[in-house]
Amino acid sequence: MNIKYIGYSFTVTPKEPATEILIAQLGFAGFESFVENEDGVTAYIQEADWNAGMLEDIQILNSNEFNISYKEEVIEQTNWNSEWEKNFNPIQVDDLVSIRAPFHENPNLKYDIVIEPKMSFGTGHHETTHMMVQHLLDMDLTNKKTLDMGCGTGILAIFAEMKGAQPIDAIDIDNWCYENSLENVTRNNCSHISVYEGDASLLINKEYDVIIANINRNILLNDMQSYMNCLAKNGTILFSGFYQEDIPIIDAEVSKYGLNIDKIIERNNWVAIKYIFE
Ligand SMILES: C[S@@+](CC[C@H](N)C(=O)[O-])C[C@H]1O[C@@H](n2cnc3c(N)ncnc32)[C@H](O)[C@@H]1O
Fold first, then answer.
1. Is the complex ipTM higher than 0.85?
2. What CATH code is assigned to 117-277?
3. Does residue 273 have its Cβ closer than 6 Å to ligand 1?
């Protein structure tokens, strides 16, 4: 018997960061899978886990800060799978890196990352992930001890290993991301990545040459001291997950530790900054 799913298509204005928050809250409420699109996201929950009033408890839907509307549909699992597959388009970064699902054809670029994202953030569609891949592409990571903080699908840790980094710690606070990163690490035959579920408290007594953190402005600011405590002398940091207008506040904090901006990449007002000691 096919499992029935209920799907809700949410139209979210402005799309970020509201969509990310919405996905997190829906995930917590039992929604199983998410397909992001131009207008927002379609979220799926098994009919057995669904109840009529459940959206009333989703906090962000009651907030005045964002404008979120939705419509509901019931679908069979078979349709839902093809819907998911239809919506995850393979992408390429600078004609050198392909990010695709297992069912996509391999375009045979220099780097091929295979991700089955399920619920976790990080298919490369998001501007911030794309820019972090661009930064990493430019760097010599050979034998660099690396941290991927807020690893999502594990995509950046996986790419770091492909670029020669090792050993690599990939950490995410979310259990689904932890599980999904483990799966994707195996899928990409990575052997130098350790995945952990948790937050900055796991960084005590650690040391990294390269820290990658694509999270959001407030978490980066909040956990800055922990990141800096585990950054090796002459290390490099890549930060993303915030907007152009957040640069001054991030930079004011980072510069206290003697790091300077080496390069900023911008896409659709999102930024990714590379920091080095000079
Ligand atoms: C913007 S996504 C980035 C995912 C992936 N690194 C990428 O670039 O596509 C941010 C991730 O950080 C995780 N996260 C949020 N707060 C965190 C925290 N305090 N410590 C560790 N991970 C956190 C979220 O669960 C989410 O997977």
1. yes
2. 3.40.50.150
3. no
